[in-house]
Design a protein that fits this description.
The protein is α+β, with helices and mostly antiparallel strands. The protein has 2 domains: 7-335, Bira Bifunctional Protein, Domain 2 (BirA Bifunctional Protein, domain 2, 2-Layer Sandwich), CATH 3.30.930.10; 344-436, 3-Layer(aba) Sandwich (Rossmann fold), CATH 3.40.50. 30% of the residues lie in helices and 28% in strands. It has 12 helices and 23 strands. It has helices at 21-28, 44-63, 77-83, 85-88, 111-121, 167-187, 244-251, 318-328, 356-371, 385-395, 405-410, 428-436; strands spanning 32-36, 39-42, 67-68, 74-76, 94-97, 103-106, 130-139, 154-164, 192-196, 206-213, 219-224, 255-257, 273-288, 298-300, 306-308, 310-317, 330-331, 334-335, 346-350, 376-379, 399-403, 413-417, 423-426. Strands 3, 7, 8, 9, 10, 11, 12, 13 and 16 form a 9-stranded mixed β-sheet that branches. It has a 5-stranded mixed β-sheet with strand order 20-19-21-22-23, with helices on both faces. Strands 4-6-5 form a 3-stranded antiparallel β-sheet. α9 (356-371) links the parallel β19 and β20. α2 packs antiparallel against α6. The radius of gyration is 24 Å and the shape is elongated. The structure holds adenosine-5'-triphosphate (ATP) and magnesium ion. Adenosine-5'-triphosphate binds at residues 109, 140, 142, 151-152, 155, 157, 200, 280-283, 315, 317, 319-320.
């Protein structure tokens, strides 16, 4: 992509409405614009990151055997009356009346809708287990939308729903998602700690939140000090094998959200306990028959008797993750994207757009990168080097290649790694090699 033809409205100054660094940087880097409180448009650079995050989430859900669907954003109120949540949900639910006076709502989550789909289609235990997920916009009329996309009113969520015949099967489905979540966040370069969590209005008894420790996090959390030295790595697993050992391993060290933390009953001695703030990027629930019973989602079991299915739901805040990644990955100059979610892999800077030799060399390098399938943003504008350098640092692409007249005389380009700021001179071929592997 040539920057001269791109839409990248950068801001020089820190916007006053942004209180946390990720919100400031997303506005400054031209990733998003607010349209009304807690509702954002995603501009080209931000949208690319959102799609990368979404794709990692999708690949790991697919690997765990979940099947992608797409449910609508607008749902009928009747379904929520069946579960009893229409009244319970309160003001966070955006309620709509259509021209025929039918009550509708903009979905804040999809337990009722998926249960309705399931009960209409699955009648026998032979068709279990199943896990269906979608990646779709949600609306929650939050009292205090803030921190940009971190607490929006409209936000993108991945929500998966599992259906099993019995509690044992449901725990296996829960474990699959638990492991998929560890892998998902690790691929984004994040350390998300699974913490015992309250189930809130979703219901049920077994629940974990995946939390990234950050001073700006909205959740108060408690965990064993040893977590600070523990890397949560994505493990390679056979999803059909026994996942209980993984679950035990990653839940053996104490970690709990404020709601679940009881100082009197805490197994960790005070000097070994960390009290911190965190960002909730995922939340998984096992809630048994909370929805299947009232909504009559039943299958006939092996002996012909009707059984209400055991369910779980599993959410990931896809749009919140974009902010959370920036909270975890930035420096004074701007964003420092992990390669897996970077909008482009490399920024190519032509130091002298007006110089024939520089332009030919930079154009040629740009063509070669494209041919090699390397995602590149090419700053071909007629701007000063200072403006170009600070723009590239701000948007945080993992690598920069700088082509200038002095280097060209020696047959070299400058290769810079954004993370450590290390600069090296090398031939264009060597730079191309580095980037295409
Ligand atoms: P929170 O406690 O932050 O309000 P929640 O517990 O109500 O979140 P869940 O119902 O568990 O949210 O939703 C699943 C995921 O969706 C959360 O883990 C979070 O990452 C994301 N999410 C929830 N609310 C918002 C929001 N207002 N803006 C952006 N992402 C959100
Ligand atoms: Mg939650």
């Amino acid at each position: 992509m040539r920057l001269s033809a791109y839409f990248l409205p950068l801001l020089r100054e820190n916007p006053t409405e942004a209180q946390i660094v990720s919100h400031r940087l997303m506005l400054r880097a031209g990733m998003v614009r607010q349209s009304s409180a807690g509702i954002y448009s995603w501009l080209p650079l931000g949208f690319r990151v959102l799609q990368k995050v979404e794709q990692i989430v999708r690949e790991e859900q697919d690997a765990a055997g979940a099947l992608e669907v797409l449910m609508p954003t607008i749902q009928p109120a009747e379904l929520w009356r069946e579960s009893g949540r229409y009244e319970d949900y309160g003001k966070e639910m955006l309620r709509i009346t259509d021209r025929h006076e039918r009550e509708m709502l903009y979905g804040p989550t999809n337990e009722e809708l998926i249960t309705d789909i399931f009960r209409g289609a699955v009648k026998s235990y032979r068709d279990l287990p199943r896990n269906l997920y979608h990646i779709q916009w949600k609306f929650r009329d939050e009292v205090r939308p803030r921190f940009g996309v971190m607490r929006g009113r409209e936000f993108l969520m991945k929500d998966a729903y599992s259906f099993d015949l019995d509690a044992k099967g449901a725990k296996h489905s829960y474990n699959k998602m638990f492991v998929a979540y560890l892998r998902t966040f690790a691929r984004m370069g994040l350390k998300a700690i699974p913490m015992r969590a309250d189930t809130g209005p979703i219901g049920g008894d077994l629940s974990h939140e995946f939390i990234i420790l950050a001073e700006t996090g909205e959740s108060a959390v408690f965990c064993d000090k040893a977590w600070l030295q523990t890397d949560v790595l994505g493990t390679d697993v056979d999803f059909n094998g026994d996942l209980e050992p993984f679950f035990k391993k990653w839940t053996s060290l104490y970690a709990a959200t404020e709601e679940m933390h009881d100082p009197k009953a805490c197994p960790v001695p005070e000097d070994q306990l960390v009290s911190a703030r965190g960002i909730e990027v995922g939340h998984i629930f096992n809630f048994g028959t909370k929805y299947s019973k009232p909504m009559k989602a039943v299958v006939s079991g092996p002996d012909g008797a009707e059984i209400a299915v055991e369910m779980g739901s599993y959410g990931i805040g896809v749009s919140r993750l974009v902010g959370a990644i920036i909270e975890a990955c930035h420096d004074d100059a701007g964003i420092v994207w992990p390669e897996s979610v970077a909008p482009f892999k490399v920024g190519l800077i032509n130091l002298r757009a007006g110089d024939e030799k520089c332009r030919t060399a930079a154009d040629d390098f740009y063509k070669k990168l494209n041919a090699a399938g390397v995602e590149v943003l090419y700053d071909d504008r007629d701007e000063s080097p200072g403006v170009k350098f600070s723009a590239m640092d701000l948007i945080g692409l993992p690598y920069q290649v700088v082509i200038g007249p002095r280097g060209l005389d020696k047959g070299v380009v400058e290769f810079k790694s954004r993370r450590d700021g290390k600069r090296e001179e090398m031939s264009p071929e060597a730079a191309l090699n580095r980037l295409s592997t």
